[in-house]
Structures are given as C-alpha cells and as structure tokens.
Write a structure and sequence with these properties.
- The complex is a heterodimer.
- Chain A is mainly α.
- Chain A is about 75% helix and about 0% strand.
- Chain A folds into 2 domains: about 35 residues; about 40 residues.
- Chain A contains 2 helices and no strands.
- Chain A is elongated.
- Helices cover about 75% and strands about 0% of the residues of chain B.
- The two termini of chain B are about 50 Å apart.
- Chain B is elongated.
- Chain B folds into 2 domains: about 30 residues; about 60 residues.
- Classes of the chains: A mainly alpha, B mainly alpha.
- Chain A: It is a multi-pass membrane protein.
- Chain A: GO terms for molecular function: enzyme activator activity.
- Chain A: Pathway: Protein modification; protein glycosylation.
C-alpha cells in the first residue's frame, strides 16, 4: 500500500467524489419526485442551478486550460527567439 | 469500427433519443417531474462521469504500491551517472 500523504490524498479524493455524486444525484434525480412541501428542499438550491453550476464550472475549466496553453506557448516562443 | 467511431455513434444515439424525448417528438405525455429529470440528464451524466474519474484516480493513488528496493537502486544509478558525466566534463 502507498504510505502517508499519498493515502490521505487518495482517500480524500474518493470521499470528495462520493459526496459530490450523492448530493448531485439527490438534487437532480430524487428531488423532482419529492413533494415540494417536504423539509428536505431547504437543503438544496433551486433546480435551475443544478445545470448552471456544472456548466459554469466546465467553462471556467476550459478557460483555465486555454490560458495555461497560451502562456506555455508564449514562453516557448520567447525562448526560441532568444536562442536565435 | 474504431473506438472513436463507436463513442461518437453511442453519443449520437443517446443525444438524439434525449432530444426526441424533450421535444415531445414521440408524442409521449410524461409527467412534469419526469420531464424535469430528463432535462438535466446530460449535465447529470457529465458530472457523474467526472466524479467517477476523480474517484478512480484517488483510489489508484491511495492503493499504489511503493517499491523501496527499486527506489534505492534507482537513486544509486543516478549517483553513478552523475559522477560519470562529471568526470567527462559535463557541469550540472
């Protein structure tokens, strides 16, 4: 077995992914079938956010990846220009 | 058929089924709660695929075996290589 921080980080990732999955499943799949007067609806945002938040997060991720690639490419160009 | 073609085919099939159901093209009258679930289904599949990927990565990180002997042998070989190259004049 891996030791120390590796195990902690790995198990932490597993736990985070399970939490996100259960919360999102309840939000998207179970809530529409539960009577709107039930108290559990207090713990969840309106249904529209269930699509908006992952979409926004995905766009943010794409933006970050694009910026990173641009930065690396510009740095590479500057290095080759200096070498010439 | 290549893997990419298989994936695209499956995605196209699922996508067209979802589109047909949401636009009512099949003439089925689904209850409003089913329609709500159907509408968020693509986002749900994406999020669960991402969670599965994250969980698998985390699990593999946690259960990866350390190889103490191989690590020590590798370090020894690195030292040898550095000494050899330094002798031949390369500077680090």
């Amino acid at each position: 077995m891996a030791t120390g921080t590796d195990q902690v980080v790995g198990l932490g990732l597993v736990a985070v992914s399970l939490i996100i999955f259960t919360y999102y499943t309840v939000w998207v799949i179970l809530l529409p079938f539960i009577d709107s007067q039930h108290v559990i609806h207090k713990y969840f945002l309106p249904q529209a956010y269930a699509v908006a938040i992952p979409l926004a997060a995905g766009l943010l991720l794409l933006l970050f990846v694009g910026v990173f690639i641009t930065y690396v490419m510009l740095k590479n160009q500057k290095v080759t220009k200096k070498a010439q | 058929m290549t893997k990419l073609a298989q994936w695209l085919w499956g995605l196209a099939l699922l996508g067209s089924t979802w589109a047909a159901l949401t636009m009512g093209a099949l003439g089925l009258e689904l209850p409003s709660s089913c329609r709500e679930v159907l509408w968020s289904l693509p986002a749900y599949l994406l999020v669960s695929a991402g969670c599965y990927a994250l969980g698998t990565v985390g699990y593999r990180v946690a259960t990866f075996h350390d190889c103490e002997d191989a690590a020590r042998e590798l370090q020894g070989q690195i030292q040898e290589a550095r000494a050899d190259l330094a002798r031949r004049g390369m500077r680090f």
